[in-house]
Design a protein that fits this description.
With about 650 residues, the protein is of the alpha+beta class. Among the domains are: about 1-105 and about 150-180, Immunoglobulin-like; about 195-295, Immunoglobulins (Immunoglobulin-like); about 495-510 and about 530-640, Alpha Horseshoe (Serine Threonine Protein Phosphatase 5, Tetratricopeptide repeat). About 30% of the residues lie in helices and about 15% in strands. The protein is built from 21 helices and 21 strands. Helix 16 runs parallel beside helix 18. The structure holds a DNA duplex (11 and 11 nucleotides). GO terms for molecular function: DNA-binding transcription factor activity, RNA polymerase II-specific; RNA polymerase II cis-regulatory region sequence-specific DNA binding. It holds the Pfam family Ank_2. Keywords: Activator, ANK repeat, Cytoplasm, DNA-binding, Nucleus, Repeat, Transcription, Transcription regulation.
Length: about 650
DNA sequence: CGGGAATGCAT
DNA sequence: TATGCATTCCC
């Protein structure tokens, strides 16, 4: 005969209870237990029929199990041990009401001692106590073992006894031991759970910051795992959220950066899973969805614009298409096309110049009817003089001749100067377009004719749909010459794009010192405006520190233009030096300290100095640098 | 049962 | 002495 486990206890999610919490808190569920169908641990005696006794007690989760000081409590339990009868027909025994009582730490040794004594009494037939030396021996053993026992995990040891010829249950079958049961209240075994995320989508290139609220975790023993399954449910990709222990807030929140997806160039959104994973035992939380989106950086949009097929002049022969360009809906300027470039009177002048179609009336905004032409002209401050068709044609042909003589395209452009305010479907003006396509000569010519307009400032500073000025596009594409030209024409470097970045921010982010230099030299800049934080809460020093190149020169320029090197970012109070340390960038950190006079003791909202950050990330070199430069090794994390 | 306050322990 | 978290207790 032998004893066999037919239902193991559930490993996780059961809470051990202290004596003070009272007995009845529900029993250990079975491994296959679920909400609608509860099961319990159970064993079966095989190859035997008749009465039997089964004893259950707690043992450690070790290769060689030891008695555990916790107690089994419940119906048939006494002194931490559960004893039941079974048979003679049904040889299974189920245990529906087993509780685990948590011994307090300081009682471990005492309880263990009792257990050992009880066990020895069982084995030996001595009933009248032990000699003093045995007591002593057991006490010493209990004290020494007490230290090494893990109170957060137990296993059930089942021992079956069959009756001997006297009917006494003395025939012991081989003990069987269950799977481990972990205390769900123990910090290192608690159930992992994602409660909330501030965002569930991000760029395929990763690096997006996510705030995740969770049930209690241990900051040194937790990971955020991104994973993807194929149709068959096989795991085909895994990435890890990027954070350090200091990014785990009070055990209940994690601020991390998303990992790069396996394919940065996805064309469609990809759905993956996020879950928490405990490093020590590989336990995971339930997964939550996360979507990787195709990269849509500003640069990529520009790249897309560049890849559009080149127009051909024969497209403009007047067969009803405009060469693929549509005009920005709702823009007033498009209507001005008719009035400022066509002969007075608005007849179509024999079709020599193709006239833009009037856009369909704007449906979303029906009360806004077609605008009175004179009002329109006023609004656009477009100077027009009524000219006859003949006069208009004469001007054009003269211009064309002059162009033939000089090769100076401005001869032609000047007649179209009012059209420079027209935008395409991306909201780009001709200035944007010239910059995007790196047409420096064109840009220069356009700027020359724009300069003759009264509203030249608004044309130079026009923004597209991403709220970028032509100057911003030039900065974004590292086009120094274009930047110089635009600045010369008075372009405003402080206009904010949709991320709250002005041109100086972008130059810093790109680490383009040459462009930064020219931007900083444009006229009438106010340091207050220049040294602003963008929508990510970062200032110029932060962006320059994070740049992958040109950092030193940019930092130097910022410093000499009185930018604040100690500016704290809005989200967490980190300075540029904190960022440099986080990136483990010795060069940038050194430059910030020695050349920009960065404050070594600047503290984040949580009170971390750069040295704290270095220490928590285990960055020896950079910590050494900070110390060598005089950082305070005793700085506390709680400023007064 | 589960949430969480109170207490204790290790720095 | 104060903090951060584990342990214990309470509801």
């Amino acid at each position: 005969p032998y004893l066999e486990i037919i239902e193991n206890p559930k490993s996780r999610g059961f809470r051990f209870r202290y004596t003070c919490e009272g007995p009845s808190h529900g029993g250990i569920p079975g491994g296959s237990s679920d909400k609608n169908k509860k099961t319990f641990p159970a064993v079966k005696i095989c190859n035997y029929q008749g009465y039997a006794r089964i004893v259950v007690q707690l043992v450690t989760n070790e290769e060689n199990p030891r008695l555990h000081p916790h107690s089994l409590v419940g119906k048939q339990c006494q002194n931490g041990i559960c004893t039941v009868q079974c048979g003679p027909k049904d040889m299974t025994a189920t245990f529906p009401n087993l509780g685990i009582q948590h011994v307090t730490k300081k009682n471990v040794a005492t309880i263990l001692e009792e257990r050992y004594i009880a066990a020895e009494m069982q084995l030996s037939s001595i009933n009248d106590g032990f000699p003093q030396e045995d007591r002593k021996r057991i006490s010493v053993k209990a004290t020494s073992e007490a230290k090494s026992i893990d109170l957060s995990v137990v296993r059930l040891m089942f021992i079956a006894y069959l009756p001997d010829s006297n009917g006494a249950f003395t025939i012991m079958l081989k003990p069987v031991i269950s799977d481990a049961i972990f205390d769900s209240k123990a910090p290192n075994a608690a159930t992992l759970k994602i409660c909330r995320m501030d965002c569930n989508a991000g760029s395929a290139s990763g690096g997006d910051e996510v705030y995740l609220l969770c049930d209690k975790v241990q900051k040194d023993d937790i990971q955020v795992v991104f994973s993807e399954e194929d149709m068959q449910g096989n795991n085909i990709w895994e990435g890890y959220g990027n954070f350090s222990p200091t990014d785990v807030h009070r055990q209940f929140a994690i601020v991390f950066r998303t990992p790069q997806y396996r394919d940065v160039d996805i064309k469609q959104p990809v759905n993956v899973q996020v879950q928490l994973r405990r490093k020590s035992d590989h336990e995971v939380s339930e997964a939550k969805p996360f979507t990787y989106l195709p990269n849509k950086s500003d640069l990529e949009l520009i790249d897309r614009k560049r890849r559009k097929p080149m127009p051909d002049f024969v497209d403009h022969l007047g067969n009803g298409n405009t060469g693929g360009y549509s005009f920005a809906a709702g823009s007033n300027v498009q209507q001005s096309y008719n009035f400022s470039s066509s002969p007075a009177g608005g007849d179509n002048g024999g079709g020599k110049v193709k006239e833009a179609r009037r856009p369909p009336a704007k449906q979303q905004n029906p009360q806004k009817g077609p605008m009175d032409p004179t009002m329109l002209l006023k609004l656009n401050r477009i100077k027009t003089e009524p000219v006859s068709w003949a006069k208009w044609a004469e001007r054009n042909s003269t211009a064309l001749h002059d162009y033939s003589i000089t090769g100076d395209v401005r001869m032609l452009l000047v007649l179209q100067r009012h059209l420079t305010s027209i935008r395409d479907h991306s909201g780009d003006s001709v200035l944007h377009v010239a910059v995007i396509h790196d047409q420096l000569e064109v840009l220069s010519s356009l700027l020359d004719v724009v300069a003759t307009l009264d509203n030249k400032q608004s044309i130079v500073d026009a923004i597209n749909k991403q709220k970028q000025t032509a100057l911003q596009v030039a900065v974004l594409t590292d086009n120094v010459e274009a930047v110089i030209d635009l600045i010369k024409m008075g372009a405003n470097p402080l206009i904010l794009d949709s991320y709250g970045n002005h041109s100086i921010h972008v130059a810093c982010r790109h680490g383009n010192a040459s462009i930064l230099y020219h931007l900083l030299n444009s006229k009438q800049l106010d340091i207050m405006q220049m040294d602003m934080k963008n929508h990510d809460g970062l200032g110029c020093f932060h962006l320059a520190a994070k740049a992958s190149q040109g950092t030193r020169q940019c930092l130097g320029l910022l410093k000499s233009n009185n930018f604040n090197v100690n500016m704290a970012d809005t989200k967490s109070g980190r300075t540029a030096l904190h960022l440099a340390v986080e990136m483990d960038n010795l060069v940038v950190a050194g430059c910030l300290i020695s050349e920009c006079d960065a404050d070594m003791e600047a503290a984040t909202y949580e009170g971390y100095t750069p040295l704290h950050v270095a220490a928590s990330l285990g960055l020896c070199e950079i910590a050494t640098l900070l110390l060598a430069c005089g950082a305070d090794p005793d700085a506390s994390t709680s400023p007064p």
